Structure prediction request, 348 residues.
Amino acid sequence: MNESDEPEILRAAWSELEREDPIVSAVETSAGVSTNRVYRLLLESGRSAFAKVSSYGSYVHFRQDHARIRQWIALLQPTPYDAFMAPVLLKNDEVFTYEHDGEWVVFYGEAPRRGVLPRVLSDAHVDNLGREMARFHRTSASVAAKLAPTWQSAGSDVASLYDQMLDKTAYEARGISREHARAIRYHCDQFLSQSERLGYHEFPKLPVLIDWNRGNFSVAYDEEGFRLYSRWDYDWFRIEPRTMDFYFFCRVVREEGDQTVFSYTCAPLLEPRFQRFVRAYHEVYPLSENDVRFLKEAYRFFILNYVLRTGEHFFVPDICARLSREAVTRYLPEVDQLDISPLLDCLS
Prediction:
């Protein structure tokens, strides 16, 4: 990376952190999908760290989310996941974030990495992943009561999008027609009413990371298979029902494997391979019927919130435009036809 490519805010933030270990170089390691920029910092001591420069969402939420992530990491200390998550760097024993001119920065310690799952998982890999994710969720649920809540909620996010779709100037500025704005409002209403019917407010809430892909976690292989080894990238951290994570699990285990050009169709939720994942997960950390039925609403929420409400702030422009167009012409129209009942057979 050329020196001119390094954002000014990065070194200003590091200086404010007051570490007596200057940055020698910063190499961008961003995936090129989101507007977030990630840099690997080589320090004078020979050690390294990572910096995330973001303007996605709200700085208030960004700052609070990282405080909760730090608390979550601390609560996991006496568990098998005590070193699983990349640490957030602190100043005066508090999470350090830095904001300037509409951008913000947080620093992470470098997570040790082991193996990566193959692009297409075997049946044994799918079973193994289901059991591992169940153990991780079960452990996180066991400490969740000690985790302070956040100001963000799925309901307030969806309500915000609904209000935006009432404002003609706002939705037309985003290239959304009146007809599509009306359809989006319908799906906002459906999410709120169906989630309440299924008992969303009574579901146990635990910290979830939502975006799971082969590029943001590693595994350690052994004679019995593999175990989760490390995780980094906390873009979509929430405190929500555990099934908020499941849409991305179905994408990891799908038959076509990891994809360079991606979309967010609901099809992977219906694949036999995801049923296999759910069955393995359920054996370790049992799911209720309404947990499974909520998968449909968790998927609807993902499209409404991460693709439509905040997509322009997260995805780079060409990807955002394509996903937004597909959301209103394909993803949301398919939701009401999504029959999740085959997954209920996994509970027997």
